[in-house]
C-alpha cells in the first residue's frame, strides 16, 4: 500500500466513524428515551475520543510526508487530509480539553442567564470561552490572523477582511431597504389553525419536489429542524406549529437544501474527505437558495398557494399575490432565527463585527451587551428591551462558535450569485416553478455545484458554478428588486 | 491510576462504544433508509474494527498482570475483563477475518438455498463455516473441548456434557407429553382480524405492566422482534399480524423480559463489564419466564382476556378458560420460532445434538440434512417435507453461531427453576396475576437475579436466586402439570 492509499483507507474509516457519531446525534434529538441523556453523553464522549485519536494518529504525519496524489481528485483529497491533520495536531490536547470543559459549563450558564435576562451572569464564563478560543486560534494561526484561523474551521480559505469588505457594502443598502419595507402598509400574519398531519404531509411533498431522496433519508420531528449525515443516509427533521404552517414548510425546504446537497455529492466520493459539502457557507447557500430564491419566489408561491388550499381549505388568503406577500412579509422583531429574508443578514453582520472585535481584543466581554444594543438600535431603529431578545438570544458563543456566524451571510451571498447564474442559464425557470417543478433548478445546482462535494475550495466552487467570482451585488440586487416591488405592490 | 483503575476506565469506554454499535444495529432494523444498507455495512465494520482493536489492546495484558481488585465486585469485573481479553487474543486476526468473510457469504447462500429448498447448494459454504469455527474453538480451547470453547462465548461456564445430561433427561418426557397433547381434541386457532393500532396499544400496556421503563426505552416495529442496549437505553421492537394478535403481544412480553433484565441491573454497574445480563441462557430465562410461566399462566390469561375484549370487542372466544386454552394451543408444525412452549425445546435439543456432532466431526455436513430429517421424524412423528421447513429454517449456522442454540433450552430450564422458587416465595402470586399485577413477580426477579448483572457466573446466579442448583426437573414438572391439565380439559 502506498502512503497515499494508507491515508485514504485511514480517512475512509474515520469518515465512517464520523457518520456513526452524527447518527448518534440524530438519535438523541429524535428518538432517544428521556432517561438516556447521561449515558448518551458518555457514549458520545467515547466516540469523540476515538475520532480525536484517529485525527492525531502519528502515522498520518509519516504518510503525509511521502504521499503523492495519483490525480487531481487525489490531490484534493490530500489537501483536505493535510488541512484536517494540521488543525487537529496544532491545538495542544490540554487546551482542547479545557475548551470542552468550559463550553459545557458555559452552555448551562448561558441558558440560566437568558432565562434571568442577566448578561452579567454570563459574562465571566464567556470571557473564559473567548480567552481559550483566542488561544486556540493563535495555535492554529501560527503568527497569522487569529480570527481567520477560527473562521477557517468553518469556511476554508475565507478571511475576516474579505468578508468585512463584502458585508460593509451590504449593510447600508440593507438598512435602507429594511426601512422602506417597514414604512409600507403592513400585511397581517396568517391566522387560523393548521392541522399537524396536513402540515407534515405537505412538507414531505415539498421535500420530494425539491429533490430529497427519501430512499436515502427520512423526515422526523424534533425541537429544532436540522439535517445530518452524508452519502446514502442523510436525514432531516422538522417541527409543526398549528398557528404557523410556514415554520414547518419553509424549515423543511431549508433542511432539504442541506440534505439534497449531501445526497447529490458524487457517490464515488462517499466516505472520503471530499464526500461532503464544501463548507458551512456553501451549505447555507444551498439551503437558503432552496428556501428563499426558489421557495419564496412569486412563481413558486403561486403553485404553493394551490397546495395550501388543497391541504387546509380556505385559510383566509384570497389569492396568489396576497399569498406571495404574506410569505414574504417583513416585520419588526429582535430574534435572528425568526427574521425574514430581508432583515436576516443585518442580524448576522452585527454578530460578525462584534465577535471579531471580541477575538481581537478590541471589544471587552463586559462591554458586549452595550455594544450589541447600540449596534442594534443603529441598524434596526429601535431599542433592545432585554438581554434574551438581544445579546443572549443565540447559543453559539456559549459553545465556543466564533467564526461561524458569518457563514450564514456568506451563504446568502453565495445564494445570490448562484441564483443570478441560474436565472441566466434557465430563462424559463418561472414557468417550471409555477408548476411546482423544481427539477431544472435543483438539477442545475446538482450538476454545477453539489456533485463536486469538497473537491474545490468554496470560493473556487462558486466561481466555477457561476462563471464569475462571488460578490454581494447579485444578492443585493435581488433583494432590492423583490422587496421594493412588494412594498409598492 | 492503578492497573485495576486503568482496566476499568478502558473497559468503560469499550462498553460505551459497544452500546453505540448496538444502537446502530437498532437503527438498521427500525428507521434506517433502505438505500443506506451498503454505507451502513461500512460504518458497522469501522465500529467493529475499533472495538476489536480495544479488546486486543496490548496494554490490557500489561495491566492484567499487575491488577489487584479492591473488593468482590472488582474481582468479578476483573474476571470478566480477563475472560474477554483471553477470548479476543487467542483467535488469530486472520482467522477472525476469514470467519467474517465466509459467514457474510454464507448468509447470502443460505437465503438462496432456503428459497430454492436445496440443502446441497448451502452445504459447501456451511462446511467452510464449520471448519473455521472448529479452528477458532481449538484456538480458544487450548487442548480442551472445542465445542465447550464455543459454547463458553454465549454461556460462560457451561459444558456440552452437562447440558447433554440435562437435555437427555428432558427429551423422552417431552416427546411423550407432546404426543399426549396432540392426541387430545384440538382447539381452533384464533379467527378474525385484529387492528394493528389496538394490538400496539395493548402491547405497550403489557410492556408497562411487566415493568418495562419507557423513560429508558422505546418500542418500535421491525421485521423481527428484538431487544437491544444496556443500562439507560434499552429498546425493543415488535411486529403485528392482523390475524394473530398473540404474535405481537407475546413477542412484546418476551422482549420485555430481556429488556427489563437489562434495565434492572444495578445502575452502579452501568457501562462496566458486569453491567449487563449474565449470559444468553440467563437472558432467555427472563424472557421465557415473562412470556410463558407468567404471561401464559391461567391467572394472567384471565386478566388478559378482559383486556383483549376491551381492545377488540367480541373476538369469538367465549370465556377465560377457552382463552387460556387458545393461548396455550399445541399444534403440529416444523418451525422452531413458531413452536409452542411444550414443543419448543424438542426443536432446540435436536439442533444441539446435531451441531455438537458437526463440530466434533462425528457428523459430516453432507449428512446433516438426512440426520435432521431422521431425528425430526423420531421426536415429532412425521416427516419434514422440504429443507426450508427443516435443516434450512434457521439463519444461525450460516452466521457461524455454534454453541448458541442450547442457550435457548438452558434458558427455559433456568426459567423452570426460577418459576418454582418464585411460586414457593410468593404463594398468592396467582391473585396478583389475575389482576394483571406483575409487580410481585418482576420485583422478585429483579431483586434476586437481575440486579446482579454479570457479577456472578450464570449457574451460581441461578443457584443463589433459587436456593438450589439448576436442574431440568422443575421445568418438566411444570410442563407436565400444565399440558396434562389442558389436554384433559
Keywords:
three-stranded mixed beta sheet; mainly alpha; 2 domains; Neurolysin, domain 3; homodimer; 489 residues; 3 strands
What does this 3D model show about the protein?
- 2 copies of one chain form a homodimer.
- In chain A, strand 2 and strand 3 (235-238) form a beta hairpin.
- Chain A has helices at 3-30, 37-55, 58-66, 72-90, 93-116, 119-141, 146-151, 160-183, 196-209, 245-264, 280-294, 298-312, 320-327, 344-360, 368-380, 405-425, 429-433, 439-448, 458-466, 473-488; strands at 219-221, 227-228, 235-238.
- Chain A folds into 2 domains: 3-151, no CATH class; 156-489, Neurolysin, domain 3 (Orthogonal Bundle), CATH 1.10.1370.
- Chain A contains 20 helices and 3 strands.
- A 3-stranded mixed β-sheet of chain A has the order 1-3-2.
- In chain A, helix 1 crosses helix 3 and helix 5 (93-116) packs antiparallel against helix 6 (119-141).
- Chain A is globular.
- By secondary structure, chain A is an all-alpha fold.
Strand content of chain A: under 5%
Under the CATH scheme, which architecture of the largest domain in chain A would be assigned?
Orthogonal Bundle
Oligomer: homodimer
Largest interface: A-B, 37 and 37 residues
Largest sheet of chain A: 3 strands, mixed
Order of SSEs of chain A:
HHHHHHHHHEEEHHHHHHHHHHH
> CATH class of the largest domain in chain A, anyone?
Mainly Alpha
The number of helical runs of chain A is 20
Give the fraction of residues assigned to helices of chain A.
55-70%
What ranges of chain A have pLDDT less than 50 throughout 5 or more consecutive residues? none
The structural class of chain A is mainly alpha
- How much is the average pLDDT of chain A? 97
The CATH topology annotation of the largest domain in chain A reads as Neurolysin, domain 3
Amino acid at each position: 500500500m502506498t502512503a497515499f492509499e494508507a491515508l485514504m483507507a485511514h480517512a475512509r474509516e474515520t469518515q465512517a466513524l464520523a457518520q456513526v457519531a452524527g447518527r448518534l446525534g440524530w438519535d438523541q434529538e429524535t428518538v432517544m428515551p428521556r432517561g438516556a441523556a447521561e449515558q448518551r453523553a458518555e457514549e458520545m464522549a467515547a466516540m469523540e475520543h476515538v475520532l480525536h485519536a484517529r485525527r492525531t494518529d502519528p502515522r498520518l504525519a509519516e504518510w503525509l510526508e511521502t504521499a503523492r496524489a495519483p490525480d487531481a481528485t487525489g490531490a484534493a483529497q490530500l489537501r483536505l487530509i493535510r488541512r484536517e491533520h494540521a488543525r487537529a495536531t496544532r491545538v495542544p490536547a490540554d487546551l482542547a480539553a479545557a475548551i470542552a470543559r468550559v463550553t459545557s459549563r458555559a452552555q448551562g450558564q448561558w441558558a440560566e442567564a437568558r432565562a434571568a435576562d442577566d448578561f452579567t451572569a454570563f459574562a465571566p464564563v464567556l470571557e473564559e470561552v473567548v480567552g481559550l478560543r483566542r488561544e486556540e486560534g493563535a495555535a492554529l494561526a501560527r503568527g497569522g490572523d487569529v480570527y481567520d484561523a477560527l473562521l477557517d474551521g468553518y469556511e476554508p480559505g475565507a478571511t475576516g477582511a474579505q468578508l468585512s469588505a463584502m458585508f460593509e457594502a451590504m449593510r447600508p443598502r440593507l438598512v435602507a431597504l429594511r426601512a422602506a419595507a417597514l414604512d409600507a402598509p403592513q400585511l397581517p400574519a396568517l391566522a387560523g389553525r393548521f392541522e399537524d398531519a396536513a402540515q407534515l404531509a405537505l412538507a414531505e411533498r415539498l421535500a420530494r419536489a425539491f429533490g430529497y431522496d427519501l430512499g436515502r433519508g427520512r423526515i422526523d420531528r424534533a425541537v429544532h429542524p436540522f439535517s445530518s449525515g452524508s452519502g446514502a443516509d442523510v436525514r432531516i427533521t422538522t417541527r409543526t406549529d398549528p398557528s404557523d404552517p410556514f415554520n414547518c414548510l419553509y424549515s423543511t425546504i431549508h433542511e432539504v437544501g442541506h440534505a439534497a446537497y449531501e445526497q447529490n455529492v458524487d457517490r464515488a466520493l462517499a466516505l472520503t474527505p471530499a464526500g461532503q459539502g464544501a463548507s458551512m457557507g456553501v451549505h447555507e447557500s444551498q439551503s437558503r437558495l432552496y428556501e428563499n430564491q426558489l421557495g419564496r419566489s412569486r412563481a413558486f408561491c403561486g403553485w404553493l398557494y394551490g397546495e395550501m388550499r388543497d391541504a387546509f381549505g380556505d385559510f383566509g388568503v384570497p389569492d396568489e399575490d396576497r399569498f406571495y406577500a404574506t410569505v414574504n412579509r417583513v416585520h419588526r422583531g429582535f430574534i435572528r432565527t425568526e427574521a425574514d429574508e430581508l432583515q436576516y443578514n443585518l442580524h448576522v453582520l452585527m454578530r460578525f463585527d462584534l465577535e471579531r472585535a471580541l477575538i481581537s481584543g478590541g471589544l471587552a466581554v463586559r462591554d458586549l451587551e452595550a455594544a450589541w444594543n447600540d449596534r442594534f438600535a443603529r441598524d434596526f431603529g429601535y431599542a433592545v428591551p432585554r438581554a434574551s431578545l438581544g445579546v443572549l438570544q443565540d447559543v453559539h458563543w456559549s459553545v465556543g462558535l466564533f467564526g461561524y456566524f458569518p457563514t450564514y451571510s456568506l451563504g446568502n451571498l453565495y445564494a445570490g450569485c448562484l441564483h443570478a447564474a441560474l436565472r441566466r442559464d434557465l430563462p424559463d425557470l418561472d414557468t417550471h416553478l409555477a408548476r411546482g417543478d423544481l427539477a431544472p433548478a435543483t438539477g442545475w445546482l446538482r450538476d454545477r455545484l453539489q456533485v463536486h462535494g469538497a473537491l474545490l475550495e468554496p470560493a473556487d466552487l462558486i466561481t466555477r458554478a457561476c462563471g464569475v467570482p462571488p460578490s454581494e451585488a447579485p444578492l443585493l440586487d435581488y433583494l432590492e428588486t423583490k422587496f421594493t416591488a412588494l412594498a409598492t405592490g
